[in-house]
């Protein structure tokens, strides 16, 4: 499986939000999307998981334009874990995860025991089996996040798209979730705010600023103090993490006069 976003541009209310973005995710690769608030990360992801149609360019999975596929066919290839309200109806956890099988079902292809087993497997994989009978609305933010990840896994996607998967998670569950994401072996494109987590868990990063990719490559090469200063407007001191051996950035505020201008669209 290979995702290739080619010259993707997205306009909202006549404002360019994503401009000429090229992104690839190779088989089994975990690719991070980082950038300041409002830089267009979620909008770009929506173009990829087929919720917001790009105004120009294409997002292709194995050469298929995701926008040329039916919604159901696209959902068999791409699963998204996004920040979403629970909705009005109180489904239980198992029902929520079962929804991940709906792209495969139809009047001619009703749910089978194999589908139910996939639901169980997905719940087990994220450690949410003890929550299976609970009402989704009664879960904590972190529990909800894990159940939504289980739903995405039940979809058996070729590509996982995650928008801030560590949102709401305590520090242990942040590490566990990203560790799980890596172990899944599924090609993944994930927006992450925490640059140190992005560096620790992603094979490659794309840095978005004002809707454009301003840097890309392995985290160690991309997250230089210069780039962090220019794009995020903070100082960064790199060091080697004493346990993991990965590059770790310590941040500090820059004096107001030294703040660099944000990249213009
Ligand atoms: N439906 C919408 N209507 C109007 N403006 C929108 C809409 N969706 C996104 N935008 C604007 O597009 C810009 C990019 O938003 P987006 O959510 O893609 O950024 P982001 O990088 O994911 O931000 P954050 O890190 O804060 O989640 C923002 O200025 C936002 O206000």
Describe the biggest sheet? 6 strands, mixed
CATH homologous superfamily title: P-loop containing nucleotide triphosphate hydrolases
β-strand percent reads: 25-35%
**Would you give the CATH topology?**
Rossmann fold
Give a structural overview.
GO terms for molecular function: ATP binding; ATP hydrolysis activity. The protein is of the alpha/beta class. The chain has a single domain (3-216), classed as P-loop containing nucleotide triphosphate hydrolases (Rossmann fold, 3-Layer(aba) Sandwich), CATH 3.40.50. The protein contains nine helices and twelve strands. The strands form three sheets. The chain has a six-stranded mixed sheet with strand order 6-7-8-3-9-10, sandwiched between helices. Strands 2-1-4-5 form a four-stranded antiparallel sheet, covered by helices on one side. Strands 11-12 form a two-stranded antiparallel ribbon. Strand 7, helix 6 and strand 8 form a beta-alpha-beta unit. Helix 4 (113-125) packs across helix 5 (141-154). The longest helix is centred in the middle third of the chain and has 14 residues, at 141-154. The radius of gyration is 19 Å and the shape is globular. It starts with a strand and ends in a 12-residue tail after the last strand. The mean pLDDT is 92. Adenosine-5'-triphosphate binds at residues 12-13, 17, 35, 37-43.
């Amino acid at each position: 499986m290979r995702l290739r976003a080619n010259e993707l541009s997205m306009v909202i209310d006549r404002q360019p939000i994503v401009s000429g973005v090229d992104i690839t995710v190779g088989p089994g690769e975990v690719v991070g999307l980082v950038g300041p608030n409002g830089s267009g990360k979620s909008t770009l992801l929506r173009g990829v998981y087929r919720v917001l149609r790009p105004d120009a360019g294409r997002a292709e999975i194995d050469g298929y334009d995701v926008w040329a596929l039916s919604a159901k066919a696209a959902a068999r290839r791409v699963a998204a874990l996004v920040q979403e309200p629970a909705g009005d109806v109180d489904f239980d956890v198992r029902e929520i995860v079962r929804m991940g099988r709906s792209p495969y079902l139809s009047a001619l292809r009703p749910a089978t025991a194999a589908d139910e087993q996939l639901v169980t497997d997905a719940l087990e994989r994220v450690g949410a089996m003890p929550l299976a009978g609970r009402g989704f609305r009664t879960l904590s933010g972190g529990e909800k996040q894990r159940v939504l990840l289980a739903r995405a896994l039940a979809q058996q996607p070729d590509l996982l798209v995650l928008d801030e998967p560590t949102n709401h998670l305590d520090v242990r569950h942040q590490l566990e979730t990203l560790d799980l994401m890596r172990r899944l072996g599924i090609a993944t494109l994930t927006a992450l705010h925490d640059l140190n987590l992005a560096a620790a868990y992603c094979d490659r990063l794309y840095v978005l600023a004002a809707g454009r990719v301003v840097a890309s490559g392995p985290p160690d090469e991309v997250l230089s103090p210069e780039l962090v200063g220019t794009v995020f407007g903070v100082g960064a001191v790199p060091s080697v993490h004493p346990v993991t051996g990965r590059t770790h950035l310590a941040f500090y505020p820059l004096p107001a006069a030294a703040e660099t201008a944000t990249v213009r669209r």
